[in-house]
Amino acid sequence: QVQLVESGGGLVQAGGSLRLSCTASGGTVSTRTLGWYRQAPGQQREMVAVQASGGAKNYADSVKGRFSISRDYSRNTVDLQMDNLRLEDTAVYYCYIFPSPRLPGSWGQGTQVTVSS
After folding, report:
1. How do beta strands 91-97 and 106-107 pair?
2. Are 48 and 60 in contact (CB under 8 A)?
3. 19-22, long-range: CB within 8 Å, 24+ apart, which pairs?
């Protein structure tokens, strides 16, 4: 099973930027979709951005134009650049690898992002 480790969370003021990074290990990830999800207190986990192995990207409406997902296939990483952060972006952010026909999906441990006023 692929292991995912996130980094880059922290405290930032509204309007600021953060870059999250997720490193995958323990299997082939280049052919699989990777993404970022988030969960705020008392809320359900929601999709933020995903990038398929072929490069296609999809974003939640709430982050379009502010967040950007990118992958480095040689390093098995997926990053999330977050600009113009808002208070409502405060959440634990999780990296996720989608299941393949033979392998299950898996989650990272999460990294906290807190946006202050």
Report:
1. antiparallel
2. yes
3. 19/79, 19/80, 19/81, 19/82, 20/79, 20/80, 20/82, 20/93, 20/95, 20/111, 20/113, 21/77, 21/78, 21/79, 21/80, 22/77, 22/78, 22/79, 22/80, 22/95, 22/108
Q: Identify the pLDDT of residue 28.
A: 83
Positions of the chain with pLDDT lower than 70, given as ranges: none
pLDDT, one tens digit per residue, over 68-92 is 999 999 999 999 999 999 999 999 9
Burial letters 19-42, b for 16+ CB under 10 A, else e = ebbbbbeeeebeebbbbbbbeeee
Residue 3, pLDDT score: 96
Q: How many CB atoms lie within 10 A of CB 73?
A: 12
